[in-house]
Design goal:
It is built from 4 helices and 5 strands. By secondary structure, the chain is an alpha/beta fold. The protein has a 5-stranded parallel beta sheet, with helices on both faces. The chain is globular. It starts with 7 loop residues before the first strand and ends with a strand.
């Protein structure tokens, strides 16, 4: 039996400049490979600056803020015309979310550093984890590329 699913390129976005560059690379790679593109924003639930009177209220607010953030990224993204694109906001640890998203993917694209961490690092913790534990090849986009 042959697998007829189209190739899939996954890219992690977090609003950083390097994630925007990674998105550009991922769009180009998806076009070249005639692949579907999964743009994935992983957000940490418990560090969100929202409150609620119940857990349900809190999580609804967190999801709404994450959706709005992803919509901002979508609005600034380069054209994806002609591509099958899925924009995903997924709660969880960014490293774990992207590594899981890499299952069955053709390529995972990440920026070398995201929003957090120390400025002197060449690679952030998320990109390092993805390089070591991804289920597919990883393209790490560095500053200036």
């Amino acid at each position: 039996m042959t697998d007829t699913a189209p190739p899939r390129v996954v890219v992690g976005v977090d609003g950083s400049a390097l994630a925007a560059n990674a998105l550009e690379f991922a769009i180009e790679e998806a076009q070249l490979r005639k692949a579907t593109l999964h743009v994935t924003y992983a957000y940490t639930v418990m560090s969100s600056p929202v409150t609620g009177s119940t857990g349900k209220d809190y999580y609804e607010q967190v999801e709404r803020v994450a959706k709005e953030f992803l919509e901002e990224i979508m609005a600034k993204a380069p054209s994806t015309e002609g591509l099958d694109v899925e924009w995903l906001g997924v709660p969880g640890n960014p490293s774990e979310v992207l590594i899981e998203a890499s299952r069955g993917a053709t390529l995972l694209v990440v920026g070398s550093r995201g929003q957090g961490g120390f400025l002197g690092l060449l690679m952030g913790s998320v990109s390092t984890q993805c390089v070591h534990y991804s289920h597919c090849p990883v393209l790490v986009v560095r500053e200036g590329h």
